[in-house]
UniProtKB/TrEMBL annotation:
<dbReference type="GO" id="GO:0003677">
    <property type="term" value="F:DNA binding"/>
</dbReference>
<keyword id="KW-0413">Isomerase</keyword>
<feature type="domain" description="Helicase C-terminal">
    <location>
        <begin position="1"/>
        <end position="137"/>
    </location>
</feature>
<dbReference type="GO" id="GO:0005694">
    <property type="term" value="C:chromosome"/>
</dbReference>
<protein>
    <recommendedName>
        <fullName>DNA 3'-5' helicase</fullName>
        <ecNumber>5.6.2.4</ecNumber>
    </recommendedName>
</protein>
<dbReference type="GO" id="GO:0000724">
    <property type="term" value="P:double-strand break repair via homologous recombination"/>
</dbReference>
<dbReference type="InterPro" id="IPR027417">
    <property type="entry name" value="P-loop_NTPase"/>
</dbReference>
<dbReference type="GO" id="GO:0043138">
    <property type="term" value="F:3'-5' DNA helicase activity"/>
</dbReference>
<comment type="similarity">
    <text>Belongs to the helicase family. RecQ subfamily.</text>
</comment>
<dbReference type="GO" id="GO:0009378">
    <property type="term" value="F:four-way junction helicase activity"/>
</dbReference>
<dbReference type="Pfam" id="PF00271">
    <property type="entry name" value="Helicase_C"/>
</dbReference>
<dbReference type="GO" id="GO:0005737">
    <property type="term" value="C:cytoplasm"/>
</dbReference>
<dbReference type="InterPro" id="IPR001650">
    <property type="entry name" value="Helicase_C-like"/>
</dbReference>
<keyword id="KW-0238">DNA-binding</keyword>
Amino acid sequence: MYANSINKVSKLYKYTTSEVPMSKSLVEMFHSETSDKNKKKIIEPMCQMSSDIRIVFATTALGMGIDVVACHSIIPYGSPRSILDLVQEIGRVGRDNANSVAILLHNSIHLRSFNKEVMTVFTTNICRRQVLMSNFLKDTELEELAKRGNKHTCCDNCAKNCSCGGL
């Protein structure tokens, strides 16, 4: 689960571990102020199938260059600072080509602080993947992306409009 500040990451971690005390061995917190020793303690198990870590509350400090094994869900919480931050966050998921999900979690207070590009992804009624990737791809590449995707597994907006009957 990504949040855009150390304060938010700390609050999410503290809330989770206080509400579910037995989760302390399964939950970690990662941000720029995490010691190198703890960063290594978190990253190494995440790169192995046998990891006991189930949830990591993190800022974008947990980002590029880390190949997390079997990560199938990401939750950006609140307002990512930019489209690039959002892409880096959700880019951690599904690297093994297994079905994966990114759940963009926000409330109306978060919407006030979104930049325009990020706001468009959260508020659009059309394909969220297309809107997100329009910041990085040419029109011809976007058309190819649209042809390849299964509508019922693309995004919540596509799933609403999918009539294939698939799951």
